[in-house]
Amino acid sequence: MKSFHTESNSHATTLVQHLLSTHRRLHVLEGAESSNATAEKDGVDDLIMLLASIAVAVKSVGSAVRRRDITHGSGTESEPLERLANETWIDCLLYSQRSCILVSEDLENPVVVESNMQGKFAVVFDPLTGRSYPPCQEMGAIFGVFRQMSGGSPVIEDVMQPGRQMVAAGYALYGACTVLFLSLGSGVHGFTLDPALNEFILTHENVRIPYCGHIYSINEGYCSLWKPEIRELISRFKTEVSLNGKERSLRYVGSMVADVHRTLLYGGIFMYFAHQQWPNGKLKLLYEASPLAFIIEQAGGKASTGLERILDITPESVHDRIQVVIGSYEDVELVEQLFKGPSRSDPMYLLRRSHSIEEMKDSKEESTSFNKDEDGPTILCSTLPRLVQ
């Protein structure tokens, strides 16, 4: 007699099955900028093996997080887990024999794989995020994969690439369950770890981030250190409706991967601006901002510094920091207007932003959130100062 669990999972798709069934469509290998004219025949198979090794690392670290109950521990207790997570990721990547150079958030310098274990991919990763003191309950991991640019021995330039040249990126989240979301350049798919099978099962296929949202995520503890225009922006977020007609709501977990995960599923925006303590921004470009920007853009969202697209930035060092504005396409564009001014190439830009406000006017009494133009009619923008024509 079959158990309920067996019946309910008889048609489940595992991570490896999903990758194998779609490998013919993984055209990103051929499209990636490489010194080779075409990707080698087994390039996709090697990438699948690499991602399978990353999945093993995620399972191992997730088990360690739960087993040690680190989410309720003190700062001193987290240090062994940090080392364990970093060593686990490096070991899994080394023994996959598909990587050539590794960059970890926990190591000052890149790790060059020995020649007898080398592959053709450069991997960047943060093995354990959300481990501030006290540690966040939503820990996770972030990773990105590049094709090796150099022809011979791996060099630092193999990882010093803009995020748009990634062939794969993803993140893991350790909470009530362990989830793994990844993209290979043709959409975003989410997998949940089935503890009975110890396999990642496809649970979120072709994830699309909502075009706009009402949730914004930012650490307001740094408010006094922000520039005046950023304080004004957040003030407007608190008092004015979002583009979907709902009142905005603040949600901030304290772990970037957890906040971005919520933003991916429900829409909205995650922001971490530069300030006096971190004049260039705090988040690391290579293995935090770029992989998550890759995921968000593949899901239909947008990722920016407020001035330029994150995936177009080439790092100058492996631990470069930047500020981040990431989330629903329309919400990120709104913030960009504060930094760059209106989009003159899109004459309908402001009109689209007035639509939800007009709907709110029809369904609710006029609020002080809406400022009438005393000099004549104009188009209102929900979160930015009215632009003078």
UniProtKB/TrEMBL annotation:
It comes from the Eukaryota. Pathway: Carbohydrate biosynthesis; Calvin cycle. InterPro entries: FBPase_C_dom, FBPase_class-1, FBPase_N, FBPtase, Fructose_bisphosphatase_AS. Residues 36-205 form the Fructose-1-6-bisphosphatase class I N-terminal domain. GO terms for molecular function: fructose 1,6-bisphosphate 1-phosphatase activity; metal ion binding. Belongs to the FBPase class 1 family. Residues 210-339 form the Fructose-1-6-bisphosphatase class 1 C-terminal domain. GO terms for cellular component: cytoplasm. Keywords: Carbohydrate metabolism, Cytoplasm, Hydrolase, Magnesium, Metal-binding. Its cofactor is Mg(2+). It catalyses: beta-D-fructose 1,6-bisphosphate + H2O = beta-D-fructose 6-phosphate + phosphate. Coiled coil: none annotated. GO terms for biological process: fructose 1,6-bisphosphate metabolic process; fructose 6-phosphate metabolic process; fructose metabolic process; gluconeogenesis; sucrose biosynthetic process. Pfam families: FBPase, FBPase_C. This is fructose-bisphosphatase. Its EC number is 3.1.3.11.
